[in-house]
Amino acid sequence: MKHVLTIAGSDCSGGAGVQADLKTMSAHRCFAMSVITAITAQNTQAVNDVLDIPPAMIEAQIDAIFTDIRVDAVKIGMVSVSDSIRAIAGKLRQYTPPFVVVDPVMVSKSGYDLLRPEAASALKELLLPLATIVTPNVPEAEKLAGMSIRSEDDIKEAAQRIYALGAKQVLIKGGHSDGQPTDWLFDGQKFTAFPGKRIDTPNTHGTGCTLSSAIASNLALGHPVEQAVELAKQYIQTAIEHSIPLGHGHGPVNHFYEYYGGEC
Ligand SMILES: Nc1ncnc2c1ncn2[C@@H]1O[C@H](COP(=O)(O)OP(=O)(O)OP(=O)(O)O)[C@@H](O)[C@H]1O
Ligand SMILES: Cc1ncc(COP(=O)(O)O)c(N)n1
Q1: Which ligand is located closest to the Cα atom of residue 111?
Q2: Which distant-in-sequence residues (6+ apart) come within 8 Å of 248 by Cβ?
Q3: For the whole model, what pTM was predicted?
Q4: Which CATH number belongs to the domain containing residue 100 in this structure?
Q5: Residues 25 and 229 sit within 8 Å (Cβ to Cβ)
Q6: 3-state DSSP helix/strand/coil % of the chain, to nearest 5
Q7: Where would one find coiled-coil regions in this protein (predicted)?
Q8: Containing domain of residue 139, as a range?
Q9: What is the pLDDT of residues 170-195, one digit of tens each?
Q10: Does an H or E element contain 50, and which?
């Protein structure tokens, strides 16, 4: 069995963050582990509060796992403060897991800033160089690349700029674009498009967390990056198609469909 670790924030409503990651990794039949960077009080409508876990406690969680258990892939999600980013980067340099997927979470679907402005440069300088693949959505890619994105050419220019920050591969996701949700992968040489079919639903809470965890699971399972993304794209497409009308805002995507081959 492969062992996959998420380093991310907790979403008590179960749609995004660590909870989405653990469900996704389990659906891929991987053993899922978590290092919690922050506790959020949120639901499908809003993030009401965030408590950042002290960096020493983040380090202690990482040490507890790596000193005892083989880790086949790591996914990093919400890390809001630069001291926590620095702590995580230091530990990953120490333990050198084979694959690191960085989802540069910045703003929740409900509009809350999950990355403090002071931490943006730490994310760029400390986490991107460790990334096997970084998976920004369009607004995140705009921030990382320092440019606005309005066209396919802009996506390609932004991917090249983000690649230059040190990530080995860059996947710019198309969920926030107009039209069909095509994701673009850049490996330093070529661009590969992963087309999707847009589902007209408000229930897309946790799509980015799910996609990056599916990529991490597929890398742990031995798939090369391009195939890991292709399979993850199929996973998120099905999970959105069967998403759950839970709560009064953005409901979660459905992982049970992949677990049991049917609705829960
Ligand atoms: N309505 C949709 N229909 C089909 N696919 C979608 C839809 N919305 C997003 N996707 C796909 O879901 C994945 C996540 O993309 P998205 O751009 O939503 O990421 P994100 O904004 O980081 O997600 P999150 O807000 O959950 O962090 C991508 O593969 C994207 O193409
Ligand atoms: C702990 C945590 N991590 C990530 C997200 C982003 O997910 P979304 O953009 O769907 O709100 C979130 N809301 N909460």
Answers
A1: 2
A2: 44, 45
A3: 0.97
A4: 3.40.1190.20
A5: no
A6: 40, 20, 40
A7: none
A8: 3-260
A9: 999 999 888 899 999 999 999 999 99
A10: strand 47-52
- From 94, 58, 63, 60, select the one nearest 76 (Cα to Cα): 58
| pLDDT of 259 | 65
The question of whether 208 is a catalytic residue gets the answer: yes
Q: For residue 126, what are the contacts with CB-CB under 8 A and spacing of at least 6?
A: 85, 86, 89
Task: Convert the pLDDT of each residue in 87-117 to its tens digit.
Answer: 999 999 999 999 999 999 999 888 899 999 9
Ligand closest in space to the Cα of 239: 1
Per the structure, the count of domains in the chain is: 1
| Residue 254 one-letter amino acid | N
Tokens of 237: 């497409």
Question: 255 and 238 in contact (C-beta within 8 Å)?
Answer: no
Supply the ipTM of this predicted assembly. Answer: 0.97
Q: What is d(CA 77, CA 8) in angstroms, rounded to the nearest whole number?
A: 4
The binding-site residues of ligand 1, defined as CB within 6 angstroms of any ligand atom, are 16, 105, 109, 137, 173-176, 181, 183, 196, 198-199, 204, 206-209, 211, 233, 236-237, 240
Q: Determine the atom of ligand 2 nearest the C-alpha atom of 110.
A: 11
The pLDDT of residue 261 is above 80: no
Catalytic residue among 208, 210, 233, 251: 208
Residue 206 annotated among the catalytic residues of the structure? yes
* Centroid of ligand 1 to alpha carbon of 173 (angstroms): 7
Instruction: In whole angstroms, give the CA distance from residue 129 to residue 15.
Output: 29
Q: What would you report as the CA-atom Rg of the chain, rounded to the nearest whole angstrom?
A: 17
